[in-house]
Amino acid sequence: VNAIVFLKLAELYEKTEGLVASIEVLLRGKERGFQEFDEPLANYYIRNSQPEKAYELTKNELTKSRALMDMGKNDEAFEILNRVKEQYKEQPLMHSLLAQYYFQKGMTDEAFKEIDEYEKLDSNSPLIYQMRALIYEELEDSFNEHLNWAKYNLIKGEKEVALNEYMIAYQFNDKDANLIETIAAMLSVTIFFGKPICLRTSIKHLRKS
User: Fold this and answer.
1) CA-CA distances (angstroms) from residue 126 to 35, 75, 129, 132, 152?
2) What are the φ and ψ backbone dihedral angles of 122, each rounded to 5 degrees?
3) CA 134, 137, 143, 146: dihedral to nearest 10 degrees?
């Protein structure tokens, strides 16, 4: 049995049984001498809310920073990120971690700048809009909050959820032409209660809500 078999099994178990099963598979692989599983294991530990174990295993600076943030040690994480920023500037994770740090520190302008950098490197990631939505929520900008949740859900393939978020955004700004066009386009192909619903009916409903 080679290392690839364990890695593929871990991927399969994640889909069928969950992260704990994936971790157990890679731990068995380590017992057989496959030390190259440390980084994959660290990533599984991060996603399974076990940042302490991830921190112990990983040698990757970004994974260490992410683990530290999950442990609430934001300043320690930022020290690492600041030190390796130039080295990892082409990696989206670098910018999402910096955005997370600045957001937690209330430095929203800096957080937005890092999200913009992230978007340049991975423009199709739903994380872009999730991060922006969370910042706008903190800023109590409900229109842009729901606009970004809509885009997040659209990328995730949750079209009905996205449409609902667009409609909520409309309640906070009913004069945005781009939003109205987006809602109209989505409603033209969306079925409610077995029949198409027109934009005028939908907007009339929104104004009553």
Assistant:
1) 33, 26, 6, 10, 5
2) -150, 75
3) 40
Residue matched to tokens 């871990």 = 10
Q: Which of 105, 104, 130, 106 is nearest to 118 (CA)?
A: 130
Distance CA 156, CA 175 (A): 27
Its pTM stands at 0.81
Task: Report long-range pairs for 186-193 (Cβ below 8 Å, ≥24 apart).
Answer: 186/159, 186/162, 187/163, 190/159, 190/160, 190/163
Neighbours of 19 (CB within 10 A): 17
Q: Which two tokens stand for residue 193?
A: 């209660």
- CA–CA gap between residue 148 and residue 193 (Å, rounded): 27
Q: Which amino acid is at 36?
A: E
129: tokens are 């809009």
- Under 8 Å between Cβ of 98 and 114: yes
User: What confidence category does residue 140 fall into, taking pLDDT thresholds of 50, 70 and 90?
Assistant: very high
Q: Which helix (H) or strand (E) holds 203?
A: helix 199-208
pLDDT tens by residue, 84-133: 999 999 999 999 999 999 999 999 999 999 999 999 999 999 999 999 99
For the CA atoms of the chain, what is the radius of gyration? 21
DSSP string, 57-73: H---HHHHHHHHHHTT-
Tell me the three state secondary structure of residue 190.
coil
